Structures are given as structure tokens and as C-alpha cells.
Amino acid sequence: MYDLITFGRCGVDIYPLQTGVGLAHVETFGKFLGGSATNVAVAASRHGLRAAVITAVGADPFGEYVREAIRGFGVDDAFVATIEGPSTPVTFCEIFPPDHFPIYFYRGEHPPDLRVTPESLDLAAVREAAMFWFTGTGLSQEPSRAAHFAALEARTSGLTVFDMDWRPMLWKEPGAAERVYREALPKANVAVGNLDEVEVAVGTRDPEAAAQALLEAGVRVAVVKMGPEGVLARSREEQTVAPPVKIDVVNGLGAGDAFGGALATGLLRGWPLERTIRFANAAGAHVAARLACADAMPTTDEVLALL
Fold first, then answer.
1. Tens digit of pLDDT for each residue in 123-170?
2. pLDDT in tens, 145-158
3. Global pTM?
4. N or C end of the chain, less CB within 10 A?
5. Overall number of domains in the chain
């Protein structure tokens, strides 16, 4: 049985090795494993959890790289399909610290990770995992959307986390995200999102009101990321606000995934909510102070040292 199975994006991050320079003028790049659900699995593995990811790659050299990188980080790739035809997605970004990181997705019309079908899932593994983590992007197209709901129907116990991961450029149908997010929320018992994402899910950017609305939608724990104001988390028994951790930001793009892997760790280990959120917040800060995403995911000791 896995501690954690994530379901969602994978790909290759091509990040400039020069900061403060637009892509038109960047001369050198680094290649890294990417994709939110994949990064969360890597982050959790760094904390000692047995993790796997459900996703798909193209039958190309970048797909081979993604598989090797996933295994190299200690994450099981048994549920990573290889699909003929579409290319493995590639993502570029620009780095303008401390708070401007434009991102450019090269995913094609129908990338491999959105072609995962309900029939291809190992529903027994999904059912038995202590935690199942899914993302909003995976709900944006069929057959991935149907596969996600099939996985959610298979969940009868354990923790199910909805990482809202709203990327508006990846949704083709106007207004679809709001409808699908609200359909998915009652099937999760933990919801995680920033202010933009919770607004899509429950119609408000006010952190307190959004957290309450998420609880009323059926989740047991609501986590609202407030940017420079820190993180608000609320359950029916507890509420906490974790202040931001002061660091020199290099690249903020992987911080949320590091937060996710650390959040999974605290929840699965039964930590109090305040301890869990402070730990997750520090894990995100650790990665924000570094260039890469997956490669920069901290160990538990590294997070504790930052705290």
C-alpha cells in the first residue's frame, strides 16, 4: 500500500539559468522534472513517504527522461503510461525575483497526462492508498476528467486532497472550472488553494469566508494560501494562520508543490494542524529560495532547520 498516490501533470521544466532576463535574451537553460502532481509526489518522498504518481508521457526522449527522473527521486512510476502520438509537455518560465515568474506551457491540444482513461487506472491501488492527491488541471479535459471521478468514486477511506491548481489557459470551456470544481469538492476531505483558486471553487477571495465555504462544501480541512500574508488553515476543530517565512526568493514556481508534499506528510503523520501548516509553509520557502522545483524539494531535516 502506498502512503500517497498523486494524479496529474508531469513534464519537463526548461528554466533559464539567468535571472532578470526575458526568454528572448536568455542564452542558457537547465532541464528539470516538472508538473504539479509529480512534484508533490517527489516532495513527499523526500519526507520518507512511499509515493507514486498517475500520469502519462509521450513516446519520446523527454518521456524517457521524465520516467527516469521520477524513479531517481524515489517515486514509483508504475502508473506512468506512455502514449504514442502527443509529445511530453515542456514548460518554460522567466525569472524576475521576488514575485514575477511568467510561465509558458507547451502542451499541445491534448497532452499525454490528460489522456489517462478510467479503464487504465489501478483502482485497487487508488482505493488502498492512505492519501490520494488530485489536481484541478487533471479535471480540465476528457478522458482525464472521467478518470479522476472514477478514482474519487473508488475512495472509501483515507485522506483525499483536492489541490485546485487552477491554470486558466488550460481550460477550453468558459465557466467549466467553476462547475467541475464544485462537483469535485464533496469527494475530497482536504482542499488546498491560493486566493485565485478558492475564488473559482467557492466564489470568494476572502480567506476566512473561503475556508468556511470549503468546509460547508464537505471537506474536513481547508487550506487557503494568502501569498505574503501566509497561510490560513481551518478544520471543524482548529484554525491556524502560519506567517510567511522570510527568505530571498529565487523562483517561486515550485513552492506550492513543496508545500503540498510537506502538508501530506503532516496530515498522514497525525500532526496538529498548526504544526503541519508551519512545516508546509517552511518547505515552500525552502524551494522558493532555489531555482529548480523537483530537484530542490527539501528533506524533513532541512525544513526543520529552516524553522
1. 999 999 999 999 999 999 999 999 999 999 999 999 999 999 999 988
2. 999 999 999 999 99
3. 0.96
4. N
5. 1
